[in-house]
Amino acid sequence: MRTPLIRLEAPELAAEIWLKLETLQPVNSFKIRGAANAIRQAARADVARGVVTASAGNMAQGVAHAARELGVPATIVVPENAPETKLAAVRRLGGRIVAVPYERWWQAIEESRFDEIDGLFVHPVDDERVMAGNGTIGLEILEDLPDPDVVLVPWGGGGLSVGVASAIKALRPQTRVEAVEPETGAAFAASLAAGSASRSDYRSSFVDGAGAPMVLPRMWERAHGLLDGSHVATLDETAAAIRLLAERTRVIAEGAGALAVAVAASGRVGTGRIVCIVSGGNIDVGRLATILGGTTP
């Protein structure tokens, strides 16, 4: 669905901050855009045996939702530490879950396949149809707000950032598009510093939908000349942004969904017109309660 772009009423902040609320998608995340586009554009014969993806949760829901529309099975390969809230949502959509160690899950992402399961593999980021679906967010932003100074995009694997930046740069190249990562896995920032696809000192956190141990070389080739920079948010900043969104807009964001707001509110991006993509709202209730109580998980 087309999601709203709303102003964050925070007069104490110097910047003019706008929120692109992908939390309002049917699966509470932007991932349905890319998943639906990739599966609908695939040949019917290719999806007849079912679809497979590797995801910690949000892409899993997008793929399961799109597969259910077509009446084909969806199998989701997840890391063993995937949040239960997201897994329960996949099951409600009829998806089958296969949990594997994180290293095996990441291998499937690196290799764009999981040979143990039959079906069309839909890569969560490194698929041009997925990125094109994500890019519709950029088109909608410029239709609603034609002159943003900066668009901040959470970086997980790069599919959202590349898709949004491709659309915005084609229509308004003077708008800066910058990635945002958690301090627990800032691989894109490390890659920009090194000038090549690099690894990060990754550790798991409540920001489970963004951050990664490395930037895939294919995504680096697409992203490094397209994005204008990157920012790293601390866990405390991200938790504070979740609280800010809940208090001021009554929007529930997951960790990844609050990253852009965390950086915009910090003042590190400047004082212009800033669009923050609130990418998803699938967060465990216990973690949300902890954060709203004033503590960082």
Summarize the structure.
With 297 residues, the chain is α/β, with parallel strands linked by helices.
* Terminus-to-terminus distance: 32 Å
- Please count the beta strands (DSSP E, at least 2 residues each): 10
Supply the CATH class of the largest domain.
Answer: Alpha Beta
What is the quaternary state of this protein?
single chain
Roughly what is the average pLDDT, rounded to an integer? 94
Spatial order of the strands in the main sheet? 1-2-10-7-8-9
Query: What's the helical proportion of residues?
Result: 40-55%
Low-pLDDT runs of 5+ residues are none
| H/E element order | EEHHEHEHEHEHEHEHHEHHEH
Strand content: 15-25%
Query: What kind of sheet is the major sheet?
Result: 6 strands, mixed
What does the radius of gyration come to?
18 Å
What is the CATH fold-level name of the largest domain?
Rossmann fold
Kindly describe this structure.
The protein is an alpha/beta fold and 297 residues long. It has two domains: 190 residues, Rossmann fold, CATH 3.40.50; 91 residues, Rossmann fold, CATH 3.40.50. Helices cover 43% and strands 16% of the residues. The strands form two sheets. A six-stranded mixed sheet has the order 1-2-10-7-8-9, sandwiched between helices. Strands 5-4-3-6 form a four-stranded parallel sheet. Strand 4, helix 4 and strand 5 form a beta-alpha-beta unit. Helix 3 packs parallel to helix 4. The model has no long low-confidence stretch (mean pLDDT 94).
Topology:
Layout: E1 5-7, E2 16-21, H1 31-41, H2 44-47, E3 51-54, H3 58-70, E4 74-79, H4 84-92, E5 96-100, H5 102-111, E6 120-121, H6 128-144, E7 150-154, H7 159-171, E8 176-182, H8 187-194, H9 217-223, E9 229-233, H10 235-249, H11 255-266, E10 273-278, H12 285-292
Parallel strand pairs: 2-10, 3-4, 3-6, 4-5, 7-8, 7-10, 8-9
Antiparallel strand pairs: 1-2
Helix pairs in contact: 1-3, 1-6, 3-4, 6-7, 10-11
